[in-house]
Amino acid sequence: MTTNKLSLQQVSKAYGYVDALHPTDLNVAESEFVTLLGPSGSGKTTLLKIIAGMERPSGGRVFINGRDTTETPVRERDLGMVFQNYALMPHLSVFDNVAFPLKVRKTGAEEIRRKVGEALGTVQLAHLADRKPQALSGGQQQRVSIARAIVYNPSLVLMDEPLGALDKKLREQLQHEIKQLHERLGITILYVTHDQQEAMSMSDRIALMNEGRIEQLGAPRELYFSPKTAFAADFLGNSNFIEATVSEVSAAATRCRLSGGEELLAPRRDGVRQGDAVRLMVRPEHIRLIGGDGAAEDNVLTASSLGPTFFGDALEIRAQIADGSEVSVKVANNFEVAAAAPGQPLRLGWSSDHTHLFASGSGR
Amino acid sequence: MRFLTKNLSLPVIVTWLIYVFLLVPSLVVIPISFGTSNELVFPPQDWGLDLYRRALDPAEGWLAAAGRSMVLGILATTIALLMGVPAAYGLSRSRFPGQKALTFMLMSPIFAPTIVVALALYLYFATLGMTGTMAALAMSHAVVITPFILVTTLSGLKHLDRNIENAAMVMGATRLQIFFHVVLPALKGSVLTGGLFAFLLSFDEVIVSWFIARSDQPTLPVKMYSSIQWEISPVLSAISTFLVAITVVGSVVAAFISSAETDGI
Amino acid sequence: MTTPMLRRDGRTRTMLNRLGFGSFVLPLTLFMLLVFCLPLIGVVRTSICDGDCSLVAYVDFATGKLFHRALINTLSIGFVTGLVSVICGYFVAYHLSRMTARRRRFFLVLVMLPFWTSILVKSFAFTVILGTDGIINNALQAVTGTDIVIPMIFNRAGVIIGMAHWLIPFAVFPILSSLLSQDKALRDAAEIMGARPWDIFWKVTFPLSLPGVIAGGLMSSVIGMGSFVTPALLGGRRDMMMANLVDFYVREALDWRMASAIAVILVLIALLILSLAAWLRQRQESGAAA
């Protein structure tokens, strides 16, 4: 059995009476890419600071590479870190910035030259070694910062919203580069972001954080397709919520009644009983618009269109259902918009498998 | 951070010694001023208010000198505020060729050796036949203290939201109206602190006054200067305590105003 | 704009309007031209023409032993006090930079207090503290039981102690502002990469604060070189600086030409150092951009 590169056991943090972080467990295996995802104030930055040693946990233990580092000074934790604002030394050249961690470790000059050369080569910046960081673009500076974090082979590389300061195009390109780097070098990365798209495209696993605890931990597909809470469903991807009351619980499914009188089917869920108030969720891309005689899905609602919005790669139609709530539907961009003009009647259909059922009042 | 302070304990000790060095001269005069003997002894053998009685004796001339310095400080500060505050506003809200050079010229009394300024003003007012007049003194002090008004006002202006002025201008206000109704009220704090410090600066100024003032009508610092030069009398400790008290009150009031200002933002 | 009253002085109005905000600067500019620039030009003129016109004062300065000593005193005292002020100022600035803003406000008052205390109060206090019969020597005698006397006043040491006390705050402020402008993430990054506090200070904090150190050092040196009160009150006969010579030539020798020439040379020295500072800053900025 290999040891985890990072292991958190019941780590918590309280500021006065405020619990910034409830007791939390988390393991990160070697060569794994784990993302802490959550809105601001969810505790992800607190957790990162505890791991880095910039904050003391109120309780629990932190293990890095199998070693209890809860009381270890920051500099002895064997971590690399990439900061949102790069944190490059403005008075040092690119080369000297990357050489910094090696120099404080008293590495020999020859080895420094070789390792820095390699690291800069990895991020394709070898030709800019003599420049000062300020002379580089934002994307280049962040690549220098990444080279600096990997040049001394730390056990774990922490990345604190590293792409937050970059524009969209560059962000996507660097996402791709970091992912490639991770696969090629097999480094272990703990990544922090509030951008769900970024988290899903890069991570092996995502720890979704909310109100000081990990709400759900799993692979991106798992979080997207099987969100355990309404918060998880809402935070990752787009979602429609419909309030309903459970009218019947059978072995295979849960039948729910809307206040408008319609009935919808959802998968069975333990602990849900007849009469419970629930929230049903369906993703906009899972809803089809059914023509007058189209094949019926097992869930169908009639609605009145509120009009389409064009997004380039897709078209979103917002519609109002009988209970007054709004539902959005994602359709192909070549959809005939006249059919969705405001006021047009629509029939929305989707599979009960794509319906998620949550206890009412959870999340948000 | 925790272990940093632990490791740097020697530097911490040095730092505290420097604070002590900075504060002791201002504080040591206070106990001495409550002594009674005619010689400077620390700590004093007997305590009393003799030295204050002597300092306040009209025959000694300290009271007249203090009054002169007070009038001079108020005059010079008024001149400096009337010209410095609008100038700072003008400099911060416009771009014109030669602006950098003009700013340098207006600020240069800070950098220029005071002795040179003193000599220049001495020769100048001597040519005009104004040496020793209150007008010459007030103008000379205004030259020395205006740059400080500029600095404090400029830094206050930096914190103002220019969009408020732009909005006023769009609504049809003239530049003068904006200055008086929008900018000045918002600048109250920095103008007040700047004025306070400018007054202290003028009140304590010795070199320019040493050259310009009439020797039979000295300002308070000039009288102190010649007194220290000729015989170090214990009365000086009472005068010094008075000056330290003024400085403390000034600094605390200024710190209070500026903190109220930043808290307000 | 069509009322007759406004039209009458329309010309001045347009001119002021074209100046825009510049017109706010006009009164002070005129005042400074008349009461600062003109007098300074007068000094340059007097240094050459006082009755007759000649460079005799400058020639005297270049050849006179008294002047050489004053020049060397001015430069060396200025340099040493600048150095002492920067070193002491760095400790204070570093201490101030590592505390909460609220606490700093209190400690800044401690720095400001001596800054605003009259230089005469300080000089008087130093004669009481450092004098042969002063607090320190009395304490030393009491402790050692001897009649040891360390001369700390009316000599070079007295001048430097007094001037450093005056100039430390001038060094504190530029150093403090360069320390406060440093991104804390840089120190965090260095620490995570394994740097010890000592490394972090010498490899990150100190190099980044160099602009403040240089500015503070040059500033206090320049101010120190022009000082007049401290050497007169705390120095000995041999510690006469150029400023004291100016005073001597105005009051005792009544030689305005010589006094003016010394003043001109003093200004030139200050200008030289200030332009050195400007050049250093410019080089640094362009170096950072390259």
TrEMBL record, chain A:
Principal EC category: translocase
Subcellular location: Cell inner membrane
Record SUPFAM superfamilies: MOP-like, P-loop containing nucleoside triphosphate hydrolases
EC number, as in UniProt: 7.6.2.11
SMART domains for the chain: AAA
UniProt cross-references to InterPro entries, sorted A to Z: AAA+_ATPase, ABC_SmlMolc_Importer, ABC_transporter-like_ATP-bd, ABC_transporter-like_CS, Mo/tungstate-bd_C_term_dom, NA-bd_OB-fold, P-loop_NTPase, PotA-like
Pfam families, alphabetized: ABC_tran, TOBE_2
Membrane protein topology class: Peripheral membrane protein
Function: Part of the ABC transporter complex PotABCD involved in spermidine/putrescine import. Responsible for energy coupling to the transport system.
PANTHER family: SPERMIDINE/PUTRESCINE IMPORT ATP-BINDING PROTEIN POTA (PTHR42781), SPERMIDINE_PUTRESCINE IMPORT ATP-BINDING PROTEIN POTA (PTHR42781:SF4)
UniProt protein name: Spermidine/putrescine import ATP-binding protein PotA
Organism: Rhodobium orientis
Name of the gene encoding the protein in the UniProt record: potA
Automatic annotation (TrEMBL), chain C:
A Pfam family: BPD_transp_1
Membrane-topology annotation of the record: Multi-pass membrane protein
GO CC terms, sorted: plasma membrane
TM helices/strands, residue ranges: 70-94, 106-130, 159-180, 201-234, 254-280
Location of the ABC transmembrane type-1 domain: 71-277
Swiss-Prot/TrEMBL GO biological process terms: transmembrane transport
Keyword Cell membrane among UniProt keywords: yes
Keyword entries, A-Z: Cell membrane, Membrane, Transmembrane, Transmembrane helix, Transport
Subcellular location: Cell membrane
Family: Belongs to the binding-protein-dependent transport system permease family. CysTW subfamily.
InterPro entries per the UniProt record, alphabetical: MetI-like, MetI-like_sf
Protein name (database record): ABC transmembrane type-1 domain-containing protein
PANTHER family assigned to the protein according to its UniProt record, in alphabetical order: ABC TRANSPORTER PERMEASE PROTEIN, INNER MEMBRANE ABC TRANSPORTER PERMEASE PROTEIN YDCU-RELATED-RELATED
